[in-house]
Every structure is written in C-alpha cells, then in structure tokens.
Amino acid sequence: MKSIQELESTYIINTYNRQPGMTPCLVRGEGSYVWDDSGKKYLDFLGGLAVNVVGHCHPAVVEAIREQAGLLIHTSNLYYGGPQAELAEVLVENTMPGGKVFFANSGAEANEAAIKLARKNKADRYKIITAESSFHGRTLATVTATGQPKYQKPFAPVVEGFSYGIFNDLDSFNNLVDDQTAAIMIEPIQGEGGVYVAEDSFMKGLRSLCDREGVLLIFDEVQCGMGRTGELWAFEHYGVMPDLLTAAKGLGGGLPIGAMLAREPYRDVLQPGDHASTFGGNPVVCRAALAVLRILLRQGFLKEVAEKGACLRQDLENMIATYPALGCEYRGMGLISALGLKKPEAKNIQAKCTAEGLLINAIGEHTLRFLPPLTISRSELEDGLKTIRRILDEFNA
Ligand SMILES: Cc1ncc(COP(=O)(O)O)c(C=O)c1O
Q1: Is residue 244 part of a domain?
Q2: Would you say 105 and 75 are in contact if contact means Cβ atoms under 8 Å apart?
Q3: Is there a catalytic annotation at residue 40?
Q4: Which helix (H) or strand (E) holds 44?
Q5: CA dihedral sign, ordered 283, 285, 188, 108
Q6: 57: helix, coil or strand?
C-alpha cells in the first residue's frame, strides 16, 4: 500500500511544500489538540491558520453539521434556504445593522465580491488601492490586490487598476487617490504580511479620506475578524465602520465560507445577475457558521479572548526580555500575535516546536505567528508557551 506521502507526491500538485518526514499527517482533532497518524498529540497554536476559532470538532458545530446534513445538504441558490437567511441576520445585526451580505466560499471570493461591488458602484471609478505587504487571496484579482510582488510575478499581466500605499502611512494613500479610485482595501491587522496592526490615526484617516473623495473603504477581516482580537471585528477597536467588510476563515468553524457585507447605501449595488456562487451560502456550512457565531456572541466569551490575548502578550514580552539576542518585538492584538525575531531562526524554531508537539507558524525567517483557537484554556496557553520558552532557550545560545 502506498503511503499518504507517496500518494500525495504522485497525485497532488505541489503548491504547499509539505515535507515527508517533517510535516505531520493530521487525522483527528479535539478542542485545542490534533493527532497525527502515528497517534502523536499536538497542541495547536496555529488553529488551521485562524480557522478553528472554536477549536477542533466543537460539539455544537459537529451537531449543527450532523443535523443539517441529515436534512438537506445542498440546493441551488435559485431557491430560498433557511440557514443562509438565519446566518445573514446574525452576521449583519452584529456587524453593520442595516446592511446586507453576499455569501461565497473563501476569503479570496469574499474579496472578489467586494472588488466587483466597488467597481460597479460608480461606473467611472475602477481603481483599488491596497497596502504593501497585504494579503487578500490568490485569485487573479485578489492576488493583484495582495501587495506582495512575489505572489503576482509568475501570473503577469495581473488585473488592471491596482496600486499600493504604505501600511500606516496615510499620506501614501492620499497621494494615490484620484477621481477614478473606487475603493481602498486594507486589513486592520496584516496577517500574512507579518502581523502588523493598523494605527488608530491611520484607520480614522482612511475613513475621512474615503468620505472626502467618495471612495469605498473595505476592511478585509478574513484573518483578524471573528473574535480574534477580543471584539467580533478588529474595526470595533478603532470605532471606524467600513463600507464593505469581508470575512471567511473562522466563520465556518472549519467548513468553507466567505462573506462580503455591505452597509447602507451600498447594500443593493449588486443586483440579480451581477454576481453568484453555486455553493455560496450552502445550508450545512451556514448552520456550522451559526453555531460558531452563537458561541462567540455568548456573554463574556470575547472578554475572555481579550484576557487570554493579554496573557499571551505578557508572556511573549517576557521572552523578548529574557532572550534579547533572539526576540525583538511583540506584534498583534488578542489572539493574533507574533514574535518578531532578530535572528533568522523562525523556520527552525517552528520545526523544533512541531517535533515537540506544538504547532506554530513561521512567516519568513523573522516572524513566529500565533493563532490559537479562541477557546484555548489558560493552562493550554501556558503549556504551549512553556514549550516555546524551552526551545528559545536553545536558540538563544
Ligand atoms: C486577510 C486575508 N484575506 C484573504 C485571504 C484569502 O482567504 P482564502 O485562502 O480563504 O481565499 C487570507 C488568507 O490567508 C487572508 O489572510
């Protein structure tokens, strides 16, 4: 019998660079833990890259999926469907009352919908400004929105009309706006770019700039949203409401979903025939998302996230003080956090953590990223941090 690794290298296009012998083959999950095919247990500080916000196989999510799968798995979006409408109500009322939502299947698709809405909004405006080092997806338009040339280069020519300001530099955005600008799109916290948090004055300044110039403000909260910062959405920390908001990742509790929310007066820009998705708003996925949102919206849940985030920050800052040669800065908010490293050791530290049963993520060689489930307990958090401390000890030498 061929091993999983052999099957994969024979039949799967190698875009993820999984390494035989190094990359675990994960087969089961429960709460903050996953297990590989040899039975080894890992504490998950990566949370499916910000997807598993309520941990692995949360009973409420499993039950919602089971129940809906026995009732109706899919119908066409040509028909009404219950879970989609229920999810829309909870999502809109807790995000931008008076708005509406379009359901897609991923973060990139949610952003595609936002880009299309922004371009349709005013016929003579088609340009979109995003930030350098941003990440908005891998489809052709969203990879163009992604302000990282390395992702675009092999696929040139990319989509027309995109330009890039410098994150947290309002003037650089100001200078790019003209009378053909349709939208400015940014992540309030740049995730893939290395966990960089937008400054308050930058967010407020973007809102004023967009209001003054008749430009839509789009926040991509695919990674930093869904409770990760201790509020349901990162924008709540700034008191700055976007015109369009995109979400995905954590929303489906592990099932694929994307959502693009549009506030009044943009909620009806897209009309029948303008946009569609075969699977968008699938009943099973929407039931899972409803279960996730109900957990996040429980009294005290998000406050807990903020408190656990503060513990994580304190611990990482202590590590920076303990290992001055290695750690140089803390970045993040709540449970989207990073340890910036002076030494180019992030990938080696990640590999060592994996070997010791802790899943974390290296972004390049200088950043360790932490995206644990929001349901992680304080003792699990402490356990993982202990492992990291022990490993940093070795690398500090
Ligand atoms: C901020 C942000 N936007 C969009 C995306 C793309 O999401 P997806 O991979 O679901 O298309 C990501 C993925 O990492 C992301 O972090």
Answers
A1: yes
A2: no
A3: no
A4: strand 41-44
A5: negative
A6: coil
Site residues for ligand 1, CB cut-off 6 Å: 106-108, 111, 135-137, 187, 191-192, 220, 222-223, 248
Treating both helix axes as pointing N-terminal to C-terminal, what angle do 346-355 and 378-395 enclose, rounded to 10 degrees?
Answer: 120
Does the pTM surpass 0.85? The reply is: yes
Residue-range definition of the domain harbouring residue 359: 4-57+300-395
Q: How far apart are CA 302 and CA 280, in angstroms?
A: 27
Catalytic residue, candidates 45, 167, 202, 249:
249
CA distance 183 to 310: 34
Neighbours of 3 (CB within 10 A): 11
Domain end, chosen from 296, 320, 349, is at 296
Residue ending a domain, choose from 253, 271, 296: 296
CA distance linking residue 238 with residue 63, whole number of Å: 36
Q: Using CA atoms, how far apart are residues 283 and 72, in angstroms rounded to an integer?
A: 7
CA–CA dist 46, 302 (Å, integer): 19
CATH number reported for the structural domain that contains residue 255 in this entry: 3.40.640.10
Query: Cα(210) to centroid of ligand 1, in Å?
Result: 24
pLDDT string in tens for the chain (397-residue length)? 679 999 999 999 999 999 888 899 999 999 999 999 999 999 999 999 999 999 999 999 999 999 999 999 999 999 998 899 999 999 999 999 999 999 999 999 999 999 999 999 999 999 999 999 999 999 999 999 999 999 999 999 999 999 999 999 999 999 999 999 999 999 999 999 999 999 999 999 999 999 999 999 999 999 999 999 999 999 999 999 999 999 999 999 999 999 999 999 999 999 999 999 999 999 999 999 999 999 999 999 999 999 999 999 999 999 999 998 888 899 999 999 999 999 999 999 999 999 999 999 999 999 999 999 999 999 999 999 999 999 999 988 7
Expressed in angstroms and rounded, the spacing between residue 396 Cα and the centre of ligand 1 is 33
Q: Which residue has the tokens 């995000």?
A: 95
In the set 220, 243, 308, 370, the catalytic residue is 220
For residue 71, the CA-to-ligand 1 centroid distance in Å is 31
Contact 47, 34 (CB under 8 A): no
261 shares a domain with 185: yes
* Catalytic, out of 45, 102, 103, 135: 135
